[in-house]
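Reproducibility note. Readers wishing to regenerate the assembly model reported in the main text can use the exact inputs given here. Chain order matters: entities are listed in the order in which they were concatenated for prediction.
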Amino acid sequence: MKQSIKYALGLSGMAALLVTLVAADHIDAPSSAGTSADIADFYAFEPSEGSDNTVFVVDLQSNVLPDLAYGTFDEDVLTEINIDLDGDLIEDQVIQAIARNGRMYFFGPTAPEQTGLTSMVYTDTPLGDVEISSSMAIVETTDAGVSLFAGPRQDPFFFDFFQFNAVISPELDSAPGGFLPAGEAIDTFDGANTMSIVVEIPNGMLGTPTATNALGLSVYKTWVTTNRKQ
Amino acid sequence: MKLRYFTSVFLIATLVGCNDDDNSPYMYDDMMDDDMMSVDFSGTYSQEDHLGRPGINTTLSYDMDGQPSIKDAHNMTIPSEMTAMFQAGFQARLEQYHDVYALKLGLDPADVNYENNILGLDAATLTTVLSADVLEVAPDLPTTYFDPGTDFDNDGRILVPDGDEVALTGRRPSDDIIDVSLILFFGGMEGDRFSGQDLDDDGVADLPRLTSDGVSLTADISTTFPYLGAPE
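Running the prediction on these inputs yields the following structure tokens for the assembly.
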């Protein structure tokens, strides 16, 4: 099994046959779609070759379709970046972000007192805070070398979503030729914006992973959740 | 009491915002909020949404009328329990997509099935991998989601692992995750199984184009923090 899961990849191609939806995670499920807690997308990368930092980007909401909630961070929504170091798919570190009065407050990375579906804000481990930007980016860099950002940005996801819906339609005369060639295809997300939270953090603050990917390379296994105040 | 703290923090934030309003492309906010701990963060928070690899729940969970939503269930499941809950449904979904195109091509759905992809993964293994919805990122290696155009070992085929690849090390905003995904679903072992081929050379495609959606990055991105372009 381990050998055969080489290149475990992100998938984003297909969707339900009869429902309308938007990838990557934009509007992925009926209960979260269009809400202030809807996660549109998630990125994790090395900012430049040889860097000792990792960048996490969380995109909440999107205005790719006109009726979607978009424009402000909900103070009742706690965003958590989960980091599994040992490969058991249970978070060992969490970085939290939550908005208060025009600022985004960040906490962690810290080992959560409780893993899973219920959270609290770990106020004992403040990471920093930054004014929520409007169109011009306001950036905070902490003494620990952590960069923080929160505000509207262009949604970088690209996908010919409307042709995709035609492709997966079971109607026999719906896109029998499949997708359109470059030049005819249209990026549905061209011009869309999203509410972004960006954290660039020294790897030393996250810990050294013992988890490996399918190629045997050391990796953090990460995911993002949104959590609403009860 | 709490309201007073809220108000003071808001006023400070507003003033700083004005002070930082210069002509530089970025405004640096040097104020660490000394009053941070007086802001109210109390309470319990319950999970509403989840995302690891882009599009997994969107594409492979399937909700049926009158049944509890699988997509909602996916967003409320912890990653360590996802494979047990969702792999079988994902695999059925993958096969169903092939049935759709069998019918559009006038073929028997029993004859048009998922074929092992460029990584050699069969449908069960691929959906097992994908059902644990996490994004892997390497702390000490360049980020490579996947480059579907690279012939790593110069054997004329793309994406045939030969042991020294660096891949699965994260996701950048510029990565074409849709095309990679389509290739893994529909590309077969050569990555081009359904790519709009003109088999009889009459100038008309005889097979559907399913391995690329034909679009590339249109948004502005940056090589410096926060890496994403200003809103449009």
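We highlight two features of this model. Chain A has one helix and eleven strands. The longest strand of chain A covers residues 193-202.
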